[in-house]
Amino acid sequence: MSIPQMNEKGLLPVGVHSCTLDEAESVLCWNDHRASLWCKLGDVLNEFRAQSFPRAPLFVDGSYVTDKPIPSDVELLIDLRSADDLIAGKVVLYCQRNHLRLRTDMLVDFYPVLQGGNDFASFFQYVGEKTACTKGLEAKDKKGILRIDSW
Predict the structure, then answer these.
(1) Residues of the chain with pLDDT > 70: what percent?
(2) What is the superkingdom listed in this entry's lineage (predicted)?
(3) Which residues of 30-56 are buried (b: 16+ CB within 10 A; e: fewer)?
């Protein structure tokens, strides 16, 4: 497990790159702003633990997983595709009730990935309009994201 170097456009190479929380922190927290966002992400994960969320894989993405010095937030997905319906429902309800608070107060934009639902993990591998404009790419170009299996 290791995170590859970002390419010349400041993005991870295409694919899902597995890493630990410590590895992600060591690569992504290269200034005070990014370290502050990482602390907020840690607070969100502590909330998840307090809610007894399953320790399902997490995907971390957004401008936080680029060379952008001052990203606005951290995109976080929890992969519930193998969770039973009761547990997945609990996480979805939590997300619905807390999404705005997590996004505005904690600067973490949180989404569950559900069996048969939107595949946000694939969706977030597209560069998107904003990044495409700033990096000279097409919105449908692909980039890498991080997967954290143990938290």
Answers:
(1) 99
(2) Bacteria
(3) eeeebeebbebbeebbebbeeeebbeb
- pLDDT, averaged across the chain: 94
What is the rounded CA–CA span in Å between residue 108 and residue 110?
Answer: 6
In which element (H, E) is residue 40 found?
A: helix 32-50
Q: Residue 126 above 70 pLDDT?
A: yes
Asked if residue 1 lies in contact with residue 19, where contact means CB atoms within 8 angstroms, the answer is: yes
- In this prediction, residue 119 carries a pLDDT of 80
126: tokens are 């597209």
Whole-angstrom CA distances from 37 to 9, 31, 64, 81 are 22, 10, 9, 27
Q: Give the position of tokens 């934009």.
A: 109
Show me where the domains of the chain are located. Answer: 15-148
Measure the CA–CA gap between 67 and 12, rounded to whole angstroms. Answer: 9
Query: Which residues, 6+ apart, have CB-to-CB distance to 62 below 8 Å?
Result: 71, 73, 74, 75, 109, 124
